[in-house]
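As the next step, I selected for study a record pairing a protein sequence with its backbone structure tokens, which the following lines show:
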Amino acid sequence: MKIVVTGASGAFGGAAAAMLLERIAPGDLILLSRTPARLADFAARGVSVRHADFDDPATLPAAFAGAERMLLISTARVGSRVGQHRSAVTAAVAAGVRHIVYTSLLGADAPDNPAIVKNDHRATEEIIDASGATWTFLRDSQYAEAVAGPMVIPVLLSGQPKPDNCGAGRVAFVSRDDCVATAVGVLTQGGHENRAYDLTGPELFTIPEALALAGEIAGRPLAVAPTDDQGMFAYFDSLGVPRHASDIIPDGPIPWSSDDMVTFGQSIREGFFDRVTDHVARITGRAPKTLREVMLAHRASWPA
């Protein structure tokens, strides 16, 4: 059975491709990217590497030809990716893909979830459900790596408390590595058809608790400065982050908007991430990484 991975030159896709090659033959793997030259190492191993641009549907029939299962990794641009995903799903099913595994978001199915990013994920789930293919939705919690890197490093560099609008909301941060392993498990196992899995880490943390853990590991206190949603908008404005998805520069340095991030914080504050499941362990056969383990793995990249 041939498996196709979209966005294979990204961090998630590349890790999934490497792990898949531990379980399937190179000839059974197809990797798609807008920049296939970045996948030369996989091509050298006998993997089929193909150009695919979801903004150019003409590239997609040949890209998906021969595939039977697909890992659809959500694209980066909030507000424009639903059209990209629709093009990919339509072309994949027309080419013969019978099962689609999609990297979604925890709480994507909650109608009252205020996170703007939820709208993209739920719309994509609905497109896949209506496509005629069977599916598995992997609804990831917030990545532990995002906390261990992009959240911690600026606080260490600035020496100032991090503004935060998440309040006392809790998150079971999940390692991206565990999400990759779960996706590979679903792609290579049976019995996951038409199921949605909430993927979480093993422990719940508030944002202040997560940064306190980072401070303990770093050997210096890290603090949060609680603020409201308007305070968060002001903070992102000071960093030059675009307010809305429509303001994002295509292929620019910041692929997200402040209304995305502020409503994400609101979603945490209102309890939509307050959930712990055992799906990672049941599908991968191993315990999920703790937030401490992920932070320790990133510790060397933190500024002194």
About this structure: The longest helix spans residues 81-95. The two ends are 48 Å apart (CA to CA).
